[in-house]
Design a protein that fits this description.
The chain is of the alpha/beta class. It has one domain: Rossmann fold (3-Layer(aba) Sandwich). Helix content is 42%, strand content 12%. The chain is built from 9 helices and 8 strands. It has an 8-stranded mixed sheet, with helices on both faces. A hairpin with a 2-residue loop joins strand 7 and strand 8. Helix 1 runs parallel beside helix 2 and helix 4 runs parallel beside helix 5.
Amino acid sequence: MFNKLKLEVKDLSGKHALVTGGNEGIGYFTALHLARMGSRVTIASRSEQKSIQAVESLKKLSKNDQIDYEMLDLGSIKNVREFAEKFSNKYESLDYCVLNAGCTFINYGTTEDGVERTIQINHLGHMQLSLLLLPIIKKAENPRIIFLSSSMHLNTTLTLPKDLESNSKHFGMIQYPKTKLMNVFTVKELARKLKDTNVLVCAVHPGFVSTEGAYKDAKGSFFGYFLRGLMTFLHLIFARNGEQGAITSAFAVTSDKIISGEYYDSCKIAKYNPQANDLKIAKELWEQSLKLVEINESDINYS
């Protein structure tokens, strides 16, 4: 179903990449691609056990000892803030910020902040993290911020403020594409704000990829079991493996052809949802999202 992608090998010695969700799936293989090119890699996730195992495996496969992990919960405004502060104090600069982590749920639920969890983990947490790390990202020579989106964003639209409200109890398959469209909106708005800097921002679609992260709350629901079984079957037949799925993310980090604000699929600029060009909605989403993650626009230095 997919053409096999090839990744040009670059020398990333002396560079540092942060990969959220780097302990499994696409994030793990993104970290592996970058580590094999010599980059220092920090993976960030909620599971310490999986992170420890991933670091050991990544070091062995890449023959690169500059791999470590940090604990990060994108479903907590407080935790993201604490992570960014700790990371910024520990490292002087950050070359590549790969915002890979994501989830989808069958059942409705909210985070400790009272926000619908798909929205907070997939959209708000990564937006908050990228803005809080911006000071050290800008210190790097040619830094990049990459948001993992999905082609599923093509088949939805945003209605604000409804889609950001915690009582918007959408079924997971409706909510997930909306968060991926929010990623594209965020990329375009952030690229506009950083247009006079050296920071490149882009969104990527990994393709239809077989990973372990989908529908983890499927237990206890007949429909959940059915849907997870169906997706597993489709993955076996049609999906890219994780290593192939991570290539476009790694390409976005390494390629000299990346254009800020664009959306990439299979290592090429791709068609995106035209609603993402609506500047009024973009402004509304940006302002409402900042409010939810408790960041003041006046505190952000984009220059």
